[in-house]
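Appendix B, example 12.
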Amino acid sequence: MKAIAINGSPRKNWNTANLLKKSLEGAASIGAETELIHLYDLDFKGCSSCFACKKIESNLNGYCVMKDNLTDVLKTILSSDILIMGSPIYLGNITGEMKSFMERLIFANLSYDSAERTNFMGVIHSGFIYTMGLPHEMIESFGYKYIFENNKSYLQLLNGISEYIISADCYQFNDYSKYAASNFSEEHKAEIREKQFPIDCQNAFKLGEKLALYVSNQSITN
């Protein structure tokens, strides 16, 4: 059982990355081999709309034809059992790197020729971890649920279950006094960091654990 986590944040040791690490710990507790990949370490682009993956005589089998640092990563993911993605919310959406990654992963497996809308022959169970500075009570009014559900529907094209968790009101800086950020209360952020973020870490662990259990139970059934 292989679990891959994809960090769509430029930070390797902050909110998103730490939650992804917890999710991999959860998967590992059920026996999964784990790997964490940082998108900002890679040199790649989003879909170029070449449609090579849609040609009738294509033998790409769900792999994007573009060759760059993402090529081998996609091969690893498409042969794995669990995919857990994480991204902060920037300007109302996932990061550009994460969006480009999703284009390359999903579009090559999106069918233009069947009612099932997928060409993928395997099963990958997936999770998405979203982090943001916005408080939980404002998520609905900002329309983020549509983004989360839309990404979930695309990830379900990988034929597995797909779930997501949200870590909101996140601590943004190590020292708020160094930044022009008076719209945010450092005291409030610190309180959330102390009380809520450990709960978010537990939820991330449970997400990885749950996805791994699905894989494990499927193996027993089969």
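The helical segments are 15-28, 71-78, 96-107, 144-155, 186-195, 197-221. The chain has one domain: 2-221.
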